[in-house]
User: Which sequence fits this backbone?
């Protein structure tokens, strides 16, 4: 995360690596356990659900990191300009 309130691409990727590997494992398992002749039909639902969960987790993680980056870019001891002006 940097001072601009944006997330670091690399830190985000690293934070999602374990979840990504877990999701890819779910995809491989779903395809491997599907019956011959029904690979798509037997695995499609499980794969779709795995990716939906991953998508939600990734998006939530990115948003949380952005919130934290934005919060850390503000100095807690510095008073907002509007308050300074309003008190004058």
Assistant:
């Amino acid at each position: 995360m940097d001072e601009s309130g944006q997330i670091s691409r690399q830190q985000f990727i690293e934070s999602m690596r374990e979840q990504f590997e877990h999701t890819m494992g779910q995809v491989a398992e779903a395809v491997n356990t599907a019956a011959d002749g029904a690979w798509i039909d037997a695995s499609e639902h499980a794969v779709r659900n795995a990716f939906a969960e991953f998508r939600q987790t990734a998006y939530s993680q990115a948003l949380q990191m952005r919130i934290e980056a934005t919060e850390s870019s503000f100095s807690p001891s510095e008073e907002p300009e509007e308050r300074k002006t309003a008190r004058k």
Summary: The chain has a mean pLDDT of 89. Residues 9-72 form one domain. The first helix runs from residue 9 to 33. The chain has one domain: 9-72.
